[in-house]
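mind reviewing this fold:
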Amino acid sequence: MVSGRWSVVSRNRPSGLLTWLKPCFYFFILLAPCFSLLAKAKAEVIDRVVAVVNGRAVALSELAEREAPLVKQASEAFSGPEKEKKLAEVRKRALESLIEDILLELEAEKAGMKVSERDIDDAIDDVKKQNSLDDEGLKVALKREGLIYEGYRVQIKRQIQKSRVIGQQVRSKVSVSEKDLAEYYERNQRMFMSDAEVKVSHILFLVPEKASDAEIENVKKQALEVLDMAGKGKDFAELAREYSQDVSAKEGGSLGYFKRGQILPAIEGAAFSLKKGEISDLVRTTYGFHIIRVDDVRGASPEPFESVREKIRSALTSEMMEQRYKEWMEELKKFAIIEIKL
């Protein structure tokens, strides 16, 4: 066992403003991938056209900028052939996002949608308020991410314009009835459980911060071997004491009881999807690989329909808008002239 141990319970706010300052507050995030407009491709890119959409070109530099945050995530989370597969998926998604952006901009222009300087000012004021920044603080944050203030205003303008055309073509055509609300509640009661808690144990296999692909694969191999032992019924607490590199190892891997929002998102997602006594597959976090077991579930009961009516309306509206958006975007693509040059 490694002498250095870590606690994975705390959830720290991201230290960089990259994730705080996405100009997406005025865009329907659930309807299309919201890639950071502040991310800058770090590598040198020899620019060329990678796609043409109704006569408008998409440059390789734009694609590199759009995919940069997801490339970083995929590179940290995967290795080997799986990493290459994920990076190919990231590039495809990023290019699709750029193509959709152009189609949205063209539709907004066709509809004659204008965005005033006051609209942009209001949007930026909202960004500053949500991130506790003044004018100078925002400019410093933007400079840190490689953007100038004037360029950021242009990005905000485009997002507002796209938001408005989506509102016109999507939201205005979505209607949620009382019957829809009641049926959604019955189908998804688990989403509205109040005070649900899970008691979690885990076994952590640390991955060094600058680990090579080979090192990551070695850690993953060991984690899979222990997972196999756990799946075959070997005492989980004993496995945790022997193999876990978390401070909880001496307690048999026990992390105690948690409600949603109190533990790392990846661990939370695994834990709340398991029943009492079940063991997860490997869960990857920034710390390494985890094996999760749910030791107990308590206090779960559905909230009354009336108390969650508006929450359901919001969730169902988003769901219906997403479907409407997909149908509308497919229609736009069907009649567009799109040439991929990758």
User: Anything to note?
Assistant: The chain has two domains: 29-177+315-340, 196-299. The CA atoms of residues 105 and 223 lie 47 Å apart. The radius of gyration is 23 Å.
